[in-house]
Design goal:
alpha+beta; flat
């Protein structure tokens, strides 16, 4: 990850340099990516992972074909070694069907050759298609595991789990071959002198981090050629994203100190760096140098912004990769989180290709070996499921990396929380993908059959409300149609009724629906009165209204509609499953029995997505209201936070906005703020609305 850089070159004496046509680095304000393969840097974000293509239809197993396969494997058994190795099963045209490894190859192949062995249909199809077997012996089982992973990635056998969408991960590089080091995104071989920090989950995560680091440490991002051609500072200097070493706006010792601070921050010593900046800010303020103090304040805020974007920053895990797998609808999603130097450097979802009969443990085991085939592992790998060959995988990765690698499934504590968070992300990512696989039109048509609607809905409205103990109550409406979510149609409703009992969800829903539909019931005026009945424009009247709740909420809304005289709008309520388990929802419609759809039903995924979008929108609207109140009240409203702690928090984070964004772990690092106080501060800003 880190190269030993040669001694940094000293700056040449200042000379008159030729002018430049532009005061901007090349490509305007974009980051320099000279070390990036152009094919992988075409966009800021990595290509989005996609679901595997639909499986080929299962082939019928013919007795003669199966017998032929058994005969081919029996021939291989006679010549197979009893030592470790890798075997490949091939068909009549020499396509590799399956690559496997074994501690004893002869024994493993014998298990396939037994005619009456109780094997899965997938394995029987594989045997039936096999005409010959190739074997490679290895010295150890560890070597067999590494060779198997390499061959699977190269050959992509039909009956193996296949890691797809695999590409090299981006790193941050602070160069070491120039007197004024450059910060840039890097992919590929780490051959250029300097220090490499990563991996990051995506190019976008690297770009956002580099932009914030530029604001915090004012390190240049321009190429060496552009740097040498400057006669005056470029625009990045003017907007305080560079310290201007090209024209000696900063001297060599000063720039070297900025580079040292940036390196310290990326190496995990962020607390010490922020303490130093806070002390400098305090000193400048005390000496009435308010412009300098403001500069240090802005640098502190930029560092806090980096940490807030990272989400979870663990307290006890220095370096680890976290893997969690979720299976649904015949597909698998593996979510990977990268933690380095105690910081979260992003996460990414993978959708490996695997037949439906593979268990989560089998998919995860094969995925891990392939994942680390071309990249160095961290010292700790955390998994959501126990895999059969944990010790073997750890030994293989240790041999490959040259240091001890631990692979474990945590049972408690912060590590278990990290795995749980990754598992939640895997479940949500797969749900989104499955909802996206069917077109919107087909889903709307399927709702007619599944829910018994009178016609295909053109406009669906979903309602939800949010509050905390009745305060900052807000309702929201999201809209979907044949073209997906119609965000320009979204509406929020600030609850105004003074007579409502705090937490009265029925009363809040009544106010929202009455305000929405009384407006529609007004006679149209002007051009609206001349709209034709067969107008194909997006309708203002919904065909289906969905609310979050059970039979009670449905009956309450039905009563509201009856009072308003609404009969042409279909109603549905979506109740969460036991323990709020996604995939086990119950659907309620008037005068009908409750509906429970199969967990793999695309219509259920679509309804879940509609409900989740409404929840996201209403929570966001609620938090905006609450944050406005918080900013007006300030930190003094938090119980137990007095002037000294308020001062320490502002010194550490720079602004109230960054305090709001901070995690519990980051808050706990502030001098004088205990773990309990950090929890109270976090909960004050992030209390979950109802």
């Amino acid at each position: 990850m880190v190269h030993d850089s040669p001694e940094r070159p000293t700056p040449p004496p200042r000379q008159a340099r030729r002018g430049s046509k532009s005061d901007l680095p090349q490509d305007d304000l974009t980051l320099r990516t000279d070390d990036v393969d152009p094919e992988t840097s075409a966009t800021d974000e990595d290509d989005e992972a996609r679901l595997p293509d639909a499986e080929e239809p299962a082939e019928g197993v013919v007795e003669g074909t199966l017998a032929t396969g058994h005969a081919a494997i029996e021939n291989a058994v006679r010549l197979a070694p009893t030592s470790p190795g890798v075997y490949r099963m091939l068909n009549a045209v020499n396509d590799v069907l399956y690559v496997g490894k074994a501690k004893n190859v002869k024994k493993r192949l014998s298990s396939y050759a037994r005619a009456n062995a109780p094997l899965a249909a997938r394995i029987l199809r594989m045997i039936a298609a096999t005409t010959h077997v190739e074997i490679v012996s290895t010295t150890t089982e560890t070597e067999a595991l590494l060779l198997e992973a390499n061959l699977i990635k190269q050959l992509r056998p039909r009956f193996n789990v296949q890691l797809r969408d695999d590409k090299s991960f981006p790193y941050i590089l602070i160069t070491g071959d120039h007197w004024a080091p450059q910060i840039l995104k890097h992919r590929g071989a780490q051959s250029r002198p300097g220090r490499y920090f990563g991996p990051f989950a995506s190019a976008g995560a690297v770009n956002r981090t580099i932009t914030a680091l530029q604001r915090a440490f004012l390190i240049r991002s321009c190429t060496d050629g552009f740097f040498e051609s400057r006669t005056r500072p470029c625009l990045l200097y003017q907007i305080k994203r560079c310290s201007g070493p090209c024209t000696r706006e900063i001297d060599f010792p000063g720039y070297s100190e900025l580079v040292r601070e940036a390196t310290e921050f990326l190496s995990g010593r962020s607390h010490a760096v922020k303490e130093l900046l806070a002390a400098e800010m305090e000193k400048a303020s005390g000496e009435l140098e308010f412009e300098t103090a403001a500069l240090y304040r802005d640098r502190l805020a930029a560092l806090s912004a980096i940490q807030s974007q990272q989400g979870i920053n663990p307290r006890t895990v220095e370096e680890a990769d976290v893997f969690a797998i979720h299976q649904e609808g015949g597909f698998s999603c593996v979510e990977v989180f990268f933690f380095r130097t105690g910081q979260n450097w992003g996460n990414r979802a993978y959708f490996p290709k695997a037949e439906k009969t593979f268990t989560p443990e089998e998919v995860l085991s094969s995925f891990l070996a392939q994942f680390y085939d071309d990249k160095p592992p961290p010292k700790l790998i955390l998994l959501s499921h126990e895999i059969e060959e944990t010790a073997l995988l750890a030994d293989a990765l240790s041999v490959k990396a040259g240091y001890k690698v631990e692979v474990s499934v945590p049972k408690r504590g912060e590590k278990r929380e990290l795995v749980g968070h990754a598992l939640t992300n895997a479940r949500e990512a797969l749900g989104r993908k499955l909802a996206d696989t069917a077109t919107q039109g087909r889903l709307l048509e399927a709702m007619v059959t599944t829910l018994g609607l009178p016609h295909t809905p053109k406009r669906i409205e979903v309602y939800d409300n949010s509050h905390i103990q009745g305060t900052n109550a807000v309702g929201a409406m999201i809209v979907a149609g044949p073209d997906g979510f119609m965000k320009n149609q979204y509406r929020k409703f600030n609850i105004k009724s003074e007579g409502l009992t705090p937490g009265d969800d029925y009363g809040m829903m009544r106010e929202v629906l009455e305000r929405r539909f009384k407006r529609l019931l007004k006679p149209p005026e002007g051009d609206a009165a001349n709209v034709k009945a067969d107008d194909d424009s997006f309708p203002q009247w919904p065909d289906l209204v969905i609310i979050d709740g059970g039979r009670g909420q449905l009956n309450a809304v039905r009563e509201i509609f009856q009072n308003l005289g609404l009969t042409q709008v279909s109603l549905m309520a979506v109740a969460k499953g036991p323990e709020r388990d996604a995939g086990r929802e119950t659907l309620f419609m008037p005068d009908r029995e409750a509906i429970k759809l199969e967990p793999r039903d695309p219509v259920l995924y679509f309804i879940q997505r509609l409900r989740d979008e409404a929840h996201r929108f209403v929570i966001g609207s609620h938090r905006k209201l609450r944050k406005k109140d918080i900013r007006e009240a300030g930190l003094q409203e938090i119980p137990g936070i007095g002037p000294s702690r308020k001062r320490a928090l502002l010194h550490h984070f720079g602004t109230l906005k960054e305090i709001e964004r901070a995690s519990i772990a980051d808050l706990g690092k502030v001098p004088g703020v205990s773990a309990e106080s950090a929890r109270k501060i976090f909960e004050f800003f992030h209390a979950q609305p109802g």
